[in-house]
Amino acid sequence: MNTSTELLKGTLSTIILRLLEGNGKMYGYELTQRVKELTGGKILIKEGSLYPALHKLEADGHIAAESVFIGKRIRKYYILTAQGSKVARQSVHELLDFLSTMEHLITTDPRYGMA
């Protein structure tokens, strides 16, 4: 079962920032494949979602792009800026706190038998 596109939308920037924080510079396709690998194929990021998120993070100053010639092609690598490192840590903390709150909300509902 793949993760809902709607659920992914709100976490995509955090995922990107966290991956760049842990892996240094990465290019777009590499990011999508790493997410697929780490989630056992449950989260599949499409180019139509990835590149707008990358461009927004770049415009906000959280990541920087570096173009590298690979043969006759140009590959664009993304790296965290100093500001991006701070935002990555804050985003991960906020997401974990939100997930903890959601887990509590959902698992304490007696209708689900998990109280």
Structure description:
The protein is of the alpha+beta class and 115 residues long. The chain has a single domain (5-112), classed as Orthogonal Bundle (Arc Repressor Mutant, subunit A), CATH 1.10.10. It is 58% helix and 16% strand. The protein is built from five helices and three strands; from the N terminus they run ααβααββα. Strands 1-3-2 form a three-stranded antiparallel β-sheet. Strand 2 (63-70) and strand 3 form a beta hairpin. Helix 2 (12-23) packs across helix 5 (82-107). The chain is elongated and about 60 Å long. The two termini are 26 Å apart. The model has no long low-confidence stretch (mean pLDDT 89).
Give a brief rundown of this model.
With 115 residues, this protein is an alpha+beta fold.
By DSSP (H or I, 4+ residues per run), the number of helices equals: 5
Query: What is the radius of gyration computed over CA atoms, rounded to a whole number of angstroms?
Result: 16 Å
- When the domains are counted, the total is 1
Specify the biggest β-sheet: 3 strands, antiparallel
Tell me the strand order in the biggest sheet. Answer: 1-3-2
Percent strand: 15-25%
Task: Determine the N-to-C terminus distance.
Answer: 26 Å
The shape is elongated
